[in-house]
Amino acid sequence: MFIAMNRFRVVKGREADFEQVWRSRESKLAEMPGFRSFHLLRGSEGDDHTLFASHTVWDSHADFDAWTRSEQFRAAHRGAGQSAQLYLGHPQFEGFAMVDL
Length: 101
Hints:
Residues 2-96 form the ABM domain. The protein is an alpha+beta fold. The protein contains three helices and four strands, in the order βαββααβ. It has helices at 15-24, 61-68, 71-77, and strands at 2-11, 35-45, 49-58, 92-97.
């Protein structure tokens, strides 16, 4: 299993706008082999931002990589820069592989 996360520092006061962007987007994730689930997480508040993370779960790292190279990925991210004013800096990517214990 592979978990892919992007952290966003959303400008204080723009949280509802940021959430609406995610509610109204055309995801395309469900079309991809190996996709399991998506969650948008709201985290702690700082002086100038609220932390959010997009969280996807995949069967494997290879499935996630295939998503990032797919037409569905390009279609889902078209126009993503139009909402850049809602967050501070670029999203920070973090990827995690499941450790079998």
